[in-house]
What we know:
The complex is a heterodimer of chains A (211) and B (174). By secondary structure, chain A is mostly helical. Chain A is built from 8 helices and no strands. Chain A is elongated and about 70 Å long. In chain B, helix 8 packs across helix 10. About 10% of the residues of chain B have low confidence.
Amino acid sequence: MQKNFSIDDLVNDLTPVKPMNINKGLALPAVIVVAFIALFVSQLGLRSDLAAGIPAPITLMRGGVLLLLGFATARAVVHMAQPSVGKGNQGWVWAVGAALLFPISALIVAISTMSADMPVTVNTGWYCFKMCLAASSATAIPMVLWLRKGAPTSLERAGWLTGLAAGGLGAFAYSFHCPFTSVMDISVWYTAAIGTSAVVGRLVVPHLIRW
Amino acid sequence: MIANEETLKNLMIRAQGGDKQSYSVLLEQTGRWLSRYFSNKISNDAIDDLIQETLISLHRKRDSFDPTRAYLPWIAAIARYRWVDKLRQTYKHQAGTLDFDIAEEGHEDVVGAKISIDRLLTMLPEKQAEVIQLVKVEGYSIAETSDKTGQSESLVKVNVHRGLKKLATLIESE
């Protein structure tokens, strides 16, 4: 029996609380993504095809996949704060599957062409990687705070999903500037950024959650 | 007699609004529900601690209850989390201290099979569930469990470790 435990103490300590609201949990990450889009566009410029009002198909596909990945995983993170046995919340798995099409396609292209000189842009790619992670880090903060407030029962999964969500949304924000048009560049650098964000999330987030 | 889902849910909603009388009843009723929920799933000397830890978690995380959803699956998720956490802690107790009288009351009737701890254990591979039951719930030593199951001592340790890790990922599954 723990010392100093009393139901009366808990009752006396009771204060009214507002139940956590899913939409509120998603709102702040969304605001941060919009802020980063504005920051990237104002400081680095809008992609030329978007600026011309004629977006390239690859731009739309990339943006769509990143937004889908970011939104589905962020929604899963926000839901994790409100646990319930039997609460099915596996939609994010399909979004991750869709996002994997990019690196899988790049791998198939690389293997099929067997070219030793694969067209991967290193300098721009490294910059893309850093910008994506910068936006991801900021996007992760409200999700971590949300999880701390809530009661996630699977800390490791919460970490992975927070990293994936932040990575996807951060990359989506940067994609408004990103000049890449090749599947190879997009696959290598975006996968690296999102993957790094996910690993960092897995390693860091569980230690930040308090029960 | 323990209050039903509808009553508990209404009490919780009032508690979120700051109604201390409802909260007091809710905690008392939830405590009784938890004692059945955990019965036969951990040693008797650990049950009181586990119930208290779960009630404290309920208190701290009360804003995570969604009033549009059911109460028992919510508290069951918290209880399962606390149970797995307790099993992961290193504790030792003497074998044979379980009191099966409470278990005979059949908490399945009260809890509902889908959110029970038994249900959670059935999601593990049989060998992992078996050694967790023996080592962590019933308090047998690794050597005793090895003798009982035919698994080597190192395999018992590995299966306990893997089983607990997997349990932590299955808490909200039914």
